[in-house]
């Protein structure tokens, strides 16, 4: 375990990103706090998720969400951009499995077997139901149609002679 | 329904200006002394630390407990105080 003290501020920052710890600038007053956080994270054996992608914030949220959901959904959406990010993880975990195996052993074997059995052909459908709508789409359509029909009825009952002649 | 103290209301109700660190809610004489020893003698310096930690309540609470020896309640109250001050004036 290399000493965190000797690392540069940039290294500390990168390590924090790897462990998914949201952080501010690593300066004198914040450094010891972040070092402690890193020690805790390393002790917990979290897998490190290095990413050179600058949009790591958004992807991290989605990745952690995927960690909590059943793992089978990860094998399903290979073609999506953010799940392709999660796809790169198993390869990386292969290198890290020596260091931190215990917590993610089961998911990784799960994922690996799933990856082998369903290569690249999984449909995109499983991803779409997760769109966050307060009111389901069909309800919105039905409501719109109901309003349209209602308005038509109101219109037709109000305008008796003249408008019908006008239409004809 | 928040049960804020008068001290909290006093702090959050106006710009902090040059107020001492003991003006912060949750920070009394002893904690204030400990913070001042480390250079955090004014409330705005602690505010600076809060902002450096990107206004993350958890991080700041942890830092405060570390730096001053505050307990969870005191640190939580101080964090809340700073958060509300930032919401109002930052």
Explain this structure to me?
The complex is a heterodimer of chains A (168) and B (90). Chain A is an all-alpha fold and 168 residues long. Chain A has eight helices and no strands. Chain A has helices spanning 9-18, 28-44, 56-68, 72-76, 81-96, 105-117, 137-158, 162-167. The radius of gyration of chain A is 26 Å and the shape is rod-shaped. With 90 residues, chain B is an all-alpha fold. Chain B has helices spanning 6-12, 29-37, 43-52, 57-68, 72-89. Chain A binds chain B through residues 22-25, 27, 29-30, 32-33, 36, and chain B through 49, 51-54, 56, 59, 62-63, 66.
Please tag this protein with its features:
A: 168 residues; mainly alpha; B: 90 residues; 5 helices; LEM_domain (chain A); LEM domain-containing protein (chain A); transmembrane helix (chain A)
Query: Which blocks of ≥5 consecutive residues of chain B have pLDDT under 50?
Result: none
**What's the CATH class label of chain B?**
Mainly Alpha
Tally of strands of chain A: 0
Q: What assembly state would you assign to the polypeptide chains in this entry?
A: heterodimer
Structural class of the helices, strands and pairings of chain A?
mainly alpha
Helix fraction of chain A by DSSP (H/I, runs of at least 4): 55-70%
Rounded average pLDDT of chain A? 68
The largest sheet of chain B is: none
Could you provide a short overview of the structure?
Chain B: This is Barrier-to-autointegration factor-like protein. The complex is a heterodimer of chains A (168) and B (90). By secondary structure, chain A is mainly α.
